[in-house]
Known about the structure:
By secondary structure, the chain is an alpha/beta fold. 47% of the residues lie in helices and 11% in strands.
Amino acid sequence: MTKKFTQEELNKILWAAADSSRSSVDGGVYKDYALTMLFFKYLSDLNKKRHNEYKARFGSDEKRIEEKMKLDRFYLPPKSSFDYIYSKIEEDNIGDEINKALRRIEDANSEKLEGVFGVDFNSESVLGKLAQRNKMLRHLIQDFAKIDLSDVGDDIIGNSYMYMVERFGADAGKKAGEFFTVRSVAQLVAMLAEPKEGDRICDPACGSGGLLLLAGEEVEKKGSKNYALYGQESTGSTFQLARMNMFLHGKDSARLEWGDTLNNPLLVENDQLMRFDVVVANPPFSLKKWGAEHAESDSYNRFWRGVPPKDKGDFAFITHMIEVAKPKTGRVAVIVPHGVLFRGGVEGKIREHLIKENIIDAVIGLPAGLFQTTGIPVAILVIDRSREKGGANEKKKDIFFIEASKEFKSAKAQNVLTDEHIEKIYGTYTKRKDVEKFARSVDLAEIEENDFNLNITRYVDTFEEETPVDISANLKELAELEPELQKLEKQMSEYLKELGIK
């Protein structure tokens, strides 16, 4: 009988298995191999479990069992299971054997898994020379061989996968952290986006897919699984991690595309950009060389408000997200650096345009130090196209500011948003009532008076008055201490004489 793991147990066991095998390979690269091995082991264990179930029903009729298994969610052909690889563990070409097994799985499941195993287990340039490479791979195989994942549900294995992505992000620094949003921040973004039943949800910079999945979970919390997920990611290895992540969470129908969203958006239909009910993202901050030189000739005319600076792609992502949100109904929640709120030039003109369009619903300032990749504070913009003329909320003429920079718990490596902080921020947003030194609703006229600057502290006064000093009380206290100090000085002098010290 297989062990039923709790979420915490599985997280701990899988991380230990993945991390203990690492040698000299950089963490940002090694994560791709460890997570691929996890995905491979999960497929193999489920496949073995399914085979045993059919065997109990059909006895030794292997032909019938094989036919049934080919109709399942996925199929592992001969010589493609984890057990097969384990039997070859002492072979000098073990890396090549793994590659062949993974290609067989892709070929047998081309509609769902084609190209998903994007790493080369026999790469000398990445994993080192034969002896070093084989040592690492054997350790990795042996560690995962001890873990039976056949009875682990989609929710637990999927959450463990994201836990490992987060751990690798924290452990490997910038290279691994680029594609990954801290879960607590992603959770808040997903809640602020407020997806509902029947929505099409998109993340145009989806990384490994965690934010997209959390947005879907917000719909499931309301008792429905009726929603669709879409995403695009520019980094190939990260795109494949996102595909595995969707599969592990049981979201086989999610549509993910590999490519540069700003220069080559691939979520299109009928030669037009697809439109979504909800758009969420944590795009790269102030991306340089994002493609400004091609923006004016953009075939989808996304940058009609102005072309952002060539060395700062923040407003390019924001603009794209607004353009793919459904007119008069779509919602956008996006993480941005604070510069987006106040920088001038063309960015100031774009920001002014968005404010005059009346679609910026809220600006929420978060603490510094929430991400491994940067210590700067960030903000969340909530954009609501239902505030456009003809939309259900067109009469709303304010922007709600929340100054949550002090809402965090200090931790060893970074600051953390706890569940309590998230609930406080989201609860304040939904109530939309002023809270002294924390939140304030500001009408557009006041923002115009401030030259369309959205810097949060212009609108939410966070100044804390210092406790006044009672000088007379302090002087009285010093006077009372003076005799005691003289007594101590006299006593010290006597001790020094006894010790022969003058």
